[in-house]
Amino acid sequence: MLRIHTKSREALEIFDEVVTFLRAKVPWIAQEVGENILENLDLIRVNDEDFRTAWELFNKFDELSFTDCTTLSLLKRLKIRRVVTFDQSLMRAFEKVKRNS
């Protein structure tokens, strides 16, 4: 099951990033992938602690968006050890956070 974090708006932002990227790079599969994601999501809610941790990470990593920092916060809380991303800044930050956990 695919997991994606949400406070509703954040889920939309991540979904938006995925399908927009796909439409730009491989438009013939963007709709199919989007439908598949919507049918198979396991939503993970961002709690107050996640939000605070994301804010701390946002102030630590200049190259990351707040959405990326929220993702890192959830990965840390859920003890997720692997991540797949096209974002190399996020991957480098993930490795740093993972080492310090």
What's the helix-strand series? EHHEHHH
Given the structure, what is the number of helices? 5
How many runs of DSSP E, i.e. beta strands? 2
Placed side by side, the strands forming the largest sheet appear as: 1-2
| Unreliable segments of 5+ consecutive residues | none
Number of domains: 2
Radius of gyration: 14 Å
Beta-strand proportion:
5-15%
Please tell me about this protein's structure.
By secondary structure, this protein is mainly alpha-helical. The chain has 2 domains: 45 residues, no CATH class; 55 residues. The protein is 66% helix and 10% strand. It has 5 helices and 2 strands. It has a two-stranded parallel ribbon with strand order 1-2. Helix 3 packs across helix 4. The two termini are 25 Å apart. The model has no long low-confidence stretch (mean pLDDT 82).
